Amino acid sequence: MLGMVDGNGHPYSWSAMFNGYDPDEMRRCPYPGIPAYLDKEPKETLRIRGANVTHIWTDDPEDAVRVARASLIPNVVDRPEDVIGRVDAVVIATDKGNEHVERCRPFVEAGLPVFVDKPLADNERDLLAFADWVAQGKPILSSSCMRYSKEFMPYRLSTSNLGELRFATITTPKSWERYGIHALEGIYPIFGPGFVSVRNTGTNERNVVHLKHACGADIVAAAHADLYGAFGLLQLCGTAGHAFVPFQDTFYSFKSQLQAFVDYLRTGERPFPFAETVELMKLVIAGIRSREEGGREVRLSEIAPSLLDGHATKEVTA
């Protein structure tokens, strides 16, 4: 378990889902929501079986000691590279996409499988680097936990009762760069590949992002810095019905996300095509570009166009 940045306590919670945890030490975690949802989970269903977090490194060495105590991690290392040769896989537990290539590089080059917290990348250069690694057969997986939301699952399976989808909204707190992917990956398995364009008419603190999909639907994703009271509110509007679904069970989504990585390690079969991650990162990047260019509509074909062929993006006339 490698890396820890401001505003992100994944090393605490994710490690606990593998190892279990010390309740007294976990209550000292600076993110009170983590012990709150861990404590609700029965001990017999808390852990992912057959895998353990054995080593930890964090950007601030004192954080590593605290996480190790709380999440029962036996080894604290001085450098992230120190885990090479001692572990079967690594988790990059940070959510700043512009850092991920360099955080991942030593482990990718060493042949270790890597799970990267969302978003994988927030710029074209880094997206191309990851795509090149995957094309070489490097085992890299990245996702938002929202892909695994149990509340959204019925609509991932079918929206036929709603008729043809015409409009959707989804919300998230924090920045578009770090949390926009939560909104995007929450809706992506419902609509599937085929996003056409992105227009962000908001600001750094108040991102309001209009997405067009090849099916004819318009989607609005809002990422507001302080929208903590409305994380993961999904609205689906169709020609025959509608649905409003709030995201609620954080633990279930995180555990399912990590279980998917463990299953990938065991079977070599991806839980979803890497092409979907490519398209999602293009949406993140297009949202940044649109905002920086005064709300211009940015087509996905503009973003890393060399990745078009053989990937999920389906270009149509808007």
TrEMBL record:
SUPFAM superfamilies, per the entry: NAD(P)-binding Rossmann-fold domains (SSF51735)
GO terms assigned for molecular function: nucleotide binding
Name of protein: Oxidoreductase
Source species, domain of life: Bacteria
Domain Gfo/Idh/MocA-like oxidoreductase N-terminal residue range list: 49-128
Lineage: Bacteria, Bacillati, Bacillota, Bacilli, Bacillales
